[in-house]
Amino acid sequence: MAQDKVKIVSVMNEKGCCVKPNEISIGDGTYSPLSRHLYFYINKQSLINNDDVRAFTKYFLARENRFEITSVGYVPLPQNTANKTRDRLQTMK
């Protein structure tokens, strides 16, 4: 019978430190090798011409959606990176 729970474990990273997974340790890379970055690339023309692509990108970057992103197990972008990306998105029209 399969369990419906995932056990959170600390790992010893390459620096020899025992690290628990959390938004900070995953975001700064100290919880490795069990975490990785997830990138998505958007075609500039699609961003400009396709309202759905633009809406999805804005949703993903919106401050108010950080809770939803974390509730499904993802770690949102660091705030300074999200801010820079939102600013760049605003200039693309």
In short:
The protein is mainly α.
Structure write-up:
By secondary structure, this protein is mostly helical. It folds into 2 domains: 8-36, no CATH class; 38-93, no CATH class. The protein contains 5 helices and 2 strands, in the order ββααααα. It has a two-stranded antiparallel ribbon. The chain is elongated, with a radius of gyration of 17 Å. The termini are far apart.
SSE order:
EEHHHHH
Query: Low-confidence runs (pLDDT<50, min 5 residues)?
Result: none
How much helicity do the residues have? 40-55%
Number of domains: 2
Gyration radius, rounded: 17 Å
Multimer state = single chain
Q: Total number of helical segments?
A: 5
* First-last Cα distance: 52 Å
Main sheet record: 2 strands, antiparallel
- What is the average of the pLDDT values? 84
